[in-house]
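Field: COMPLEX_INPUT
Field: COMPONENT_COUNT = three
Field: RESIDUE_TOTAL = 844
Field: MODE = joint
Values follow.
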Amino acid sequence: MDNHIALRQLTVSFTTKAGTVKAANRIDAIFPGGQISGIVGETGSGKSVLGLSVLGLLPENRIVSGSILYKNRDLLQLPEPEMNALRGKTIAFVPQNPDTALNPVMTVGEQLSEMFTCHGKANPVEARLRAIEQLRRYALSEPQTVFDRYSFQLSGGQRQRLLCAMGSALAPDWLIADEPTKGLDAVLRRQVFQLFQALRETSNLGILLITHDLRLAERLCDTVFVLYAGTVVEQGPAGELFAGPLHPYTQGLINAQPHKALTPLPGMPPSLIDLPAGCKFRPRCRQRTKLCSQEPALRNVHGRQVRCWQYD
Amino acid sequence: MIEVFNITKTFGTGLWRQTRTLAVDNASFSVKSGKTLGLIGMSGSGKSTLGRLALKLIPCDTGRIVFDGRDISNFTARQMKRLRTEMQILFQNPETSLNPRFTIAESMAEPYRLHGQRRQKDIAEQIDLWFQFVGLSTELLARRPHQLSGGQLQRVCIARALSLQPKFLVLDEPTSMLDVSVQAQIIEVLRQAQKKAGIAYLFISHDLDLIKACSDEIAIMYQGRIIEQQPTEDLYRRPREEYTKKLLDAFVNF
Amino acid sequence: MAAINKASIVYRLAAVILLLLVASAVLAPVIAPYDPNRVMPDETLQPCSIRHWLGTDSLGRDVLSRLLYGAQVSIGFAVLAALCTTLLGVSLGIIGGYFGGVTDLLLQLLVNIFQGLPGMSLMIAIAGSLGPGSASLLLAVTLTSWAGFSRIVRGEVLKIKEESYIEGIRSLGGSDAYILRRYILPNLFNSLIILFTIRVGTVVLSVASLSFLGLGMQPPQADWGVMIQDAKVYFRSYPQLLIAPGLCILALCGSIQLVGDALRDRFSIRQSTQKQDW
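Field: COMPLEX_OUTPUT
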């Protein structure tokens, strides 16, 4: 039952008119099966790319190297038909922005049933029953009525729940959730949190949570990977990481939150096209030394891994 | 600085405006110079609408607005134009707040053009000063909005709003589309501006933690009504309404 | 990179062709070897020769000279007509789109009526009833095409009106006139350029068709459409009488559209602010 996902030296770049975007640089990470792993980062950190890589949904102009291992298969090497069979059924995706992720011209029922008829090979009648059951399970009240509605007739929270319902429809091994709380207010955010918690308790689903919402990651995740400029700068058990962050970026990020000190981090993250040499965080780091002109490696510290010369 | 009494606004949709939605229901609040009133509500509570009503960007159905001692409820468009320099708004999405066809310099010069100042040299000097204040490099002036980050754009918007030297600034979720670290930077700039010029702020948000950190008083908005308003400390210690207690719970115990 | 170069070669070629056409129109009095209406009865239907580079038509008129003078008429009229259509369509589109309300409803009604009328028939009706001549032609062409313009412009204005930065300018104190002048009109530029250039091409074709039917430019006016009409009887034996003006129309329509495309690309600023978030 070992269905962990392992990233080995994953490097993803994109060729664009402005230059080569190095979105992920030699990332090594293991996401344990049946647990919730969080990839935490801000805009320009490269976190969305990781989720898309696992699903094989990267755009055409990509250059990928390294491997993504799942049940002894390298997902990057899988031919498209096999990858297609995997998507939705074994590894499912909950995209960000419920407003644009749902098809406005199909009813809720049609979209949900599609999951069952396409992958599950169910016939329309069965699919309808299973869809309604799924809607009920995700607290979409009056599932029969919702089944015939269109997505724009649902509230923001309902749409988010629908996306999760669609994602987990086929009882996948893995759910990759891309910014599930983006643009949602506090009440909805709490609902999403409860949704994922329920998921974790009722099934053996592994969840890969990609988010910039630190509080969500803190409450929900078992392991957290902090991403900065395409590299993992700190990773470890969520509780310990948030209680006592080691990397200066993690520290700065946590302190910048409104319910903490709201202390600004000076400067801006580097452009992924023009990455600085050495430690990527050096230009903004108050604790920098001469050593930082070289990129540090990930070191084990107190049961976590940190990429900083302070701990070398 | 600004006092708003019993504002009500109903929106009508449909060809003959038959479907009516009560967006703001008999809301009243006041903000003093140099102070910040945090307005918190969830989506659909009417908080953004209330902000715009206070600035008379949308006409209200009933109610009185007293700005700097003057009753402006019935001011004409021309009277309002002169007043616009004293009351400004900062929007939620910095990426759509500026005309994509203008350079940053042109967008920054708009307030001056609109209010009759034509001397190019003076305008350029002022723009430079404001850019320094918000922490932006003047080399950004020649660029266009799509070349700047969200945080940079929001600073440009702040610089532009401040260049008119307003007495009252409505902040409509100014950081909800920005990253955590950038949010902290923007809040710092806004703090500095308030300290320097004594501007009254109406800080609209759905993030209670943020409002708590930034506001002197907090007003809770629910379904178009302001159900409670208290100084920040008091609100946390002795919330009066049920909804307030639920809201506090959602944040403190998240 | 190769694709970009190839494309710009096409655009440059189009610009050159357009320039040549406009130059010949302007310089026609200087460079035309003969008076376009000069009839040379003993030199009718001559093939291409040294004396007449493109031969002569059934009345002995030099084809090349007629083409050059025809350029004046065709291009000049087409641009004028396209301008009129643009002015009418844009003003009504802006008024309806920006101010909305009852005015918009009424204007939309008008647009729907005009768009519903069959273009060619309307043109024939107007030109026919008002009598042939440039003025009625201008009226006919403008009245049949302003509605489509107006509808597109209205749509664009509606879109721009809702943008956040418009609200921003209003909050800074901008009046409707200011907003229309500095924000709405410039943002319409992209669409207008394309609409205008397509319109010029369509007008040339419409005029040619009307002339072919005898309702457009009247002979002996040297107009490309008229030349095609004249040539229709003879073109089996003397195809150059048809091909020459036909190619000119093709060259004009094609080059002006390509140039319009290039201008739009050159001046269009990335409207979308959707940045890629990695």
